[in-house]
Amino acid sequence: MTLSIEDLEGIARIEKDKRESFTYQINVCVAAGCLSCQSGVLKEAFEKEVSRRGWENWCSVKGVGCLGLCAAGPLISIQPDGTYYRGVGAPDVSEILESLGGAPIPRLDCASSRPFFEQQPKIVLENSGRIDPERIEDYIAEDGYKALYNALRMMRPSEVIEQVLASGLRGRGGAGFPTGVKWTAVAKASNGNKFVVCNADEGDPGAFMDRSILESDPHRVIEGMAVAAYAVGANTGFIYVRAEYPLAVQRVRTAISQARHLGVLGNNVFNSQFSFDINVRLGAGAFVCGEETALIASIEGRGGRPRPRPPFPAEFGLWGQPTLINNVETFANIPPIIRKGGKWFATIGTEKSKGTKVFALAGRVNNTGLIEVPMGTTLREIVFQIGGGIPGDRAFKAVQTGGPSGGCIPEQFLDMAVDYESLASVGSIMGSGGLIVMDDTSCMVDVAHFFMEFCMSESCGKCVPCRVGTSQIYHLLNRITKGEGKLSDLDMLEDLSDLLKNTSLCGLGQTAPNPIMSTLRYFRDEYVAHIEEKRCPAEACKIHEAREAV
Amino acid sequence: MKEPTSLTGKKLGNDANPARIFTMTIDNRLLTAREDETVLSVARQNGIYIPTLCHMEGLSLRGACRLCIVDVKGAPRVLPSCVTLARQDMEVVTNSDRVIEYRRKILELIFSERNHVCSVCVSNGHCDLQALATELGMTHVRYDYLYPKQLVDASHPRFSVDHNRCVLCMRCVRVCDEIEGAHTWDIMGRGITSRVITDLNQPWGSSETCTGCGKCVQVCPTGALSEKGKSVAEMTKRRQFLPYLQMMRGEGRK
Amino acid sequence: MNKVRLATVWLDGCSGCHMSLLDLDEGFADVAAQIDLVYSPIADVKEFPRDVHVTLVEGAVSSDEAEEQIRHIRERSKIVVSFGDCAVTANVPGMRNQFKVDDVLARGYLENATINEGIPTLGIPRLLPQARPVHELIDVEVFLPGCPPPSEAILYVLTELLEGRMPDLTQKTRFGA
Question: Which three-class secondary structure state does DSSP give residue A256?
């Protein structure tokens, strides 16, 4: 069976008609965060109660993807009112149904978090929290797979790449390499069976952007991959997703089988010459497998250890074939770019960083969850408006971006517009989008210690600087947090950081010192206090514990 | 000798696609190179010393010990010469201050990682690691020694492995897989807890795949792998077989 | 001309480095004219003197007494030389570092004892948890590896220091022998 554009539009129309037949839609978040606090039970309770009351024809209950404010789950949204309720449980169901059409229930209302929901112009997450991630029809109703149709039937592969180049999109996995340039490289590679790989091995502690996208809108990623495959001339795709994301894996698998069934994956998609299918591969939880050559090794069934580049995967990738590897969020940006044009996308963001960025906002901030903001938004807006400031009005100290490869950014840069360049200029990186807010109870030496412990245990062990260097840095930090450090240890830390940055084999080792270097740069006085006064200014680390014990 | 394939495994140098030959400089000397040669191999052909540890002629390239790093003009960071292909007009410096300093620090890290007690080692006087310390002028280790608890496996009738001396160069793993074809050796764990193992982490003596050829022992740069019955400083390694076997097997594996 | 005040110290080591020093034979005679040996296991001096110019330290720092001693020596010496592998790397004394002190003592004095079983305590300094290289506890100016360092290397170091130069030991000695 081959799908035509009429079929696609037909599905969208039926779906939209169905939606419009409901006066009220109750959207219950069924992404992993809310599911883990029983939103599945909640959804069933709604369904039961709606059916008991015989309201099925005008009140729909739908499981949707992430609504964003993850710490306040289970979350629901009621449309068309635009009411958001937090911490909803099955006992609240009747009350909520009774209140439909009336004033929101103050006890559950997210009124105080309004800026969180309203200040995010969404592209990547446009369908998150709105569509049922387990139904392809719901995605199609939101112009899903139209970009693929447009690409296949109205554009040459080179024209697709031109749009991506024009959009200015850069890789969302961390390094920010221009996506169009990467695509061009793979397209130019002449020989062999090319592959498209989606990197969903999201490993930064506290980051869950990619998980949420896959759980909330998996078809968007599949469509992005298919467009990419068409553009570079690949016929097979892999989604490499970590096994710790069982729900994402399940939803991606469901989405792939629906896509195959409908014919948007498979042979001669939309009656074109283009054939494409996607396989899912599970990662076994190694952080380093986010590095593309280690990821390739892992898909091939070998140990996940990087190899020196060049040759780059664009030339010599999976099984030696030219391979395009992009991150989940990068692929998720592709359908709207193709639908609306690269120029449209390029109007959003800053001069060198276009579009939006999804961040996992966590730490000492009132609204913890997933946000999407245009590139160039200031840290102050993110932390104090969308994030709702710091609990207990404590003093802001720093934001940590980029996970274990990133750095801590102090208060003086709060008004800095966030993009790839600005973050790098203050010693951090965009990374995949983790954003951890710290207040005056956070010890910066302890933060550095935490991330170095992570890098040490995630180092693959192949190259010496990373294998032994992370261990030595950890050893020094351990000593300092225990109050046994020497001032000369700080020079040693800087020295080892420089060594790792310049001589490690892959990005893990090269960026592992960032948390150390940035905290030494902005919070050196805290290190010195630990060493000279044997005191933790934030009263957070082991020195303090030892003192308390005495 | 290494077969003429590039790092990508692409065959070079046939009639239809002759390998390009060009000039480059290493330490300000103008040299001729072919596009399928690494910087290390061009340097060695011309008698320019670059230290190596994990690299071994005749085994696959690895680029992991980072001792062979060099400065390449225009590169964002130092590059490992063993896996960096020569390019036209490339300007390489093998002995800049920072390269020398980085190499020494990397070597010190290796010494700090495990328990390298040269004075009582079977390979004392015949050890690549010990020789590197002398060559690079390393007179002490500035980092704290980690003194990890490491085991010795002497279950094999003729050989033993002392993990205290292992530098994780993977020469044993590569020679066993690529030359002997047994793939008895591999690596388990990750990071600082990585360890070479035989079969699926069974005692060497009970390995069903080990042919007892001893190639791993001969290529091991330190006293980690040794023949039984050798006392302090008695273990010398014989590596002449490697180029010979490589040659006899013609193109062999990639 | 004022003579150079030289001291040599024997911590946790086998005294082989001192033997190598004595192996200088007639070479020692040339040096001897320029030095005063103010403290050494081969000279019967009870207290480490003040204002020592050069101190050669043999052996790792293994006990609380040695730790105290080495800090004292640092205060009173202008140049400290880590003399031999035990001082530079902890070498053989460091081989116990993988184990707990109590286990090491029990092994030596209980399990393997054939006579007079019992861990000695009286008048004996307490072992540190690990034997450490000298430079992990104090600043060291010159490192002279070797087990033992060859006599020529020792002579070279002494000659250079007497001439007021810092010796460069690249290629002149190696770990192990």
Answer: helix
B5 pLDDT above the threshold of 90 = no
Cβ–Cβ contact B143 with C under 8 A = no
Question: Residue A519: which of A420, A407, A426 has the closest Cα?
Answer: A407
Residue A239 contacts residue A278 (beta carbons within 8 Å): yes
C6, containing H or E segment: strand C4-10
End-to-end CA distance of chain B: 13
Which of C57, C89, C91, C166 is the mutation pick for testing B, counting most B CBs within 10 A? C89
Q: What's the complex ipTM?
A: 0.93
Please give the pLDDT value at position B12: 55
- Number of B to C CB contacts under 8 A, please give it: 81
Q: What is the mean pLDDT of residues C68-87?
A: 97
In this predicted structure, the answer to whether residue A499 has a pLDDT above a threshold of 80 is yes
Crossing angle of helices A328-340/A146-154, nearest 10°?
Answer: 60
Tokens in use for A335? 């359908």
Neighbours, chain B (3 or more CB pairs < 8 A): A, C
The model's pLDDT over A139-169, given as tens digits with 9 standing for 90+, comes to 999 999 999 999 999 999 999 999 999 999 9
Supply the pLDDT for residue A489. Answer: 96
Strand partners, A369: A361
- Full domain range(s) for residue C72: 4-95+127-162
Strand ranges, E, within B35-117: 69-72, 79-80, 91-93
Could you tell me if A176 and A293 are in contact, meaning their C-beta atoms sit under 8 angstroms apart? no
Instruction: Give the pLDDT score at A81.
Output: 86
Does a cis peptide bond (omega within 30 degrees of 0) precede residue A133? no
Residues in chain B with CB shorter than 8 Å from the CB of A501 are 77
| Pair B162, B69 in one domain | no
CA–chain centroid gap for A524, Å, is: 31
pLDDT for the residue B147: 95
- CATH number for the segment(s) A444-549: 1.20.1440.230
Residue C122 lies in a domain: no
Task: Mention every residue, 6+ apart, whose C-beta is less than 8 A from residue B6.
Answer: B12, B35, B36, B85
Q: How many domains does chain C have?
A: 1
Q: Which CATH number fits domain A136-346: 3.40.50.11540, 3.40.640.10, 3.30.1050.10, 3.20.20.70?
A: 3.40.50.11540
pTM of the model: 0.93
Contact (CB<8Å) B192/A468? yes
List of residues 6+ apart from C27 with CB closer than 8 A: C151, C155
- A488/A485 Cα distance (integer angstroms): 8
